[in-house]
Write a structure and sequence with these properties.
mainly alpha
Length: about 110
């Protein structure tokens, strides 16, 4: 019985860590913060501005991050940002959802 419980705890811990995806960590790891500040527009729109535009349509933001939708904020600056967006195509659906959730909390 102890072996069973120990195995269960290890498996459950694996599921917990896999399910706990941190959007802020993804944002930082992909160097998004270089252009996107929390509350102040800079090279790119702030997280606050992004949240205001996409708050009622998180799916559109997710599609934009996947490269499947046009930008609705500062489309004239998109070509400058486009090379950086390529990194996001490697994210899983779960990671994208976490990133969108993090961005929209501002």
């Amino acid at each position: 019985m102890k072996k069973f419980l120990a195995g269960f705890v290890i498996v459950a811990a694996g599921f917990t860590s896999a399910a706990a995806v941190d959007g802020k960590e993804i944002f930082e790891k992909n160097t998004c913060a270089i252009c996107h500040k929390e509350t102040k527009d800079a090279v790119g729109p702030s997280l606050k501005t992004i949240a205001e535009y996409y708050k009622n349509n998180p799916e559109q933001l997710k599609n934009f991050l996947k490269g499947q939708a046009d930008p609705i904020i500062w489309p004239d600056k998109f070509n400058m940002m486009k090379p950086q967006m390529g990194k996001l195509k490697a994210l899983t659906e779960e990671e994208l959802d976490a990133l969108v959730d993090f961005m929209l909390k501002h």
